[in-house]
Amino acid sequence: VNLVACFTGALVGTIIGVLPGLGPTVTLALMLPFTFKFGPTAGLIMMAGVWYGAMYGGSTTSILVNIPGEAASVVTCIDGYQMCKKGRAGAALALVAIGSFVAGTLGILGLQFFAPLLGKAALAFGPPEYLAVMILAFVLLSNLSGDHPIKGAAMTFLGLFVSSIGMNPLDSYPRFTFGSETLVMGIDFLPLAMGLFGVSEILNIALEKHTGREFKKIRYWEMYPTKEESRRSIGPILRGSVLGFFVGLLPGPCNVLSTFIAYAVEKKVSKTPEAFGKGAVEGVVAPESANNSAVMGAMIPLLTLGIPFAAPSAVMLAGLRMHNVEPGPMLFTNMPEMFWTFIAAMYIGNVMLLILNLPLVGLFGRIAVIRPAIIMPAISLICLIGVYSVRNSMFDVWIMIISGAIGYFLRKWKFPIAPFIIGVVLAPTMENSVRQSLMLFKGNPLLIADRPVALALLAVAIAFILYRIVSSLMGKKIEFQGEEPV
Questions:
Q1: Best-predicted range by mean pLDDT (162-171, 226-235, 362-371, 432-441)
Q2: Residue of 291, 264, 271 whose CA lies nearest to 156
Q3: How wide is the angle at C-alpha 65 spanned by C-alphas 199 and 240, nearest 5°?
Q4: DSSP 121-151
Q5: Long-range residue pairs from 447-453, CB within 8 A, at least 24 positions apart, any chain
Q6: Does the pLDDT at position 470 exceed 60?
Q7: What pLDDT digit, counting tens, does each position of 170-198 carry?
Q8: Residue 98 CA to chain centroid, in angstroms?
Q9: Residues 6+ apart with CB under 8 A from 476
């Protein structure tokens, strides 16, 4: 029964994860009633399989059609779609599947051996520490901007502004709504992401044929990664897996946070950072490995403390309580068989996910070579249905169309889109951390000096900013000295 539940969860999660708009949280909520057919242990296994599968499924559309299935797949679009245009979509999908397997395996080992210890450590992170993590994350976000850090910073602040439109979470006062009742609920992430990535790419192909998708005749065996691509992926997969596991312990959108931190780290340690954004395999496997490993990290506070730090784990907590199971420290004492069965089944589910997806690489890879005249109308229809189905709102459809047009011009003017989207996603969490920290410090931000972890993280962020400024100035100085006199 546990194996059936695991396979069902992984299969359903992968299929639904491909559909834009239905991320792991929605998928888990839809699958909750079916867990009663299996019981608490198998139900937990099935929900974890759904979460796993949805994480992998979201990367498929990011690579093939430049549409992130959910927020954690935004970073994958940067290099994944460029690999697709080079005829390496199959290789990208295969390496993501292998990276997800390795990340899941390492995450399961971490959950197995360090769950109680890390669960207590996660509680040490209060609002000031999490605020410091968010500031460091936004500083690292400048690494996604390539040679245009100022443009990247501008797009990040624009994302923060767009996220502030709607109801103030503290006093429910409307902000920047201009009297519009529709804007009171804010602007959703999905229409923005699908417009800026998917619709803008459709416009790019339609209006400028010479800059569109470059199709190549590829044989079936060329769909899979080469030895060189596999070799280059080993380090990023391992680094992304470890990083994602620990970031997964943090509250909020930990999987989103883990993906772009992993991308920034890989770009920093790479010998060829200029290849990122142009189809670097490291820029695909590192974020996806971090994404899947973060799932296991997020399980630790849920199972050991009964505290959901991420939206999908909150749905899983609701599902467990429906089965009269209360996660927490006593779970390991009162129901040890449930915990160890979960560990074993998750590893088997990880293997199932690999077996399930590797044979499909060739099929998915063929999608990349379909003529634009056929594939683009289908993508447009998927975008429209996906956006409208979330809130049944034509306003969201118009937001997608308008943001698609804006995204087209942003591409032409070399403005990076990923910092804007991630700014929109992370802004609410950062705002809550700022408010909670100020209340904790009674309005005196200097009291953060009493929090050594937060202070250390802020010091790293400041050091990174100073490093970028100094290296930029030194680069200009060297360039100036190297010029011949006229």
A1: 226-235
A2: 264
A3: 115
A4: HHHT--HHHHHHHHHHHHHHGGGGGTT-HHH
A5: 448/128, 448/132, 451/126, 451/128, 451/129, 453/124, 453/125, 453/129, 453/132
A6: yes
A7: 777 888 888 888 888 888 888 888 888 88
A8: 17
A9: none
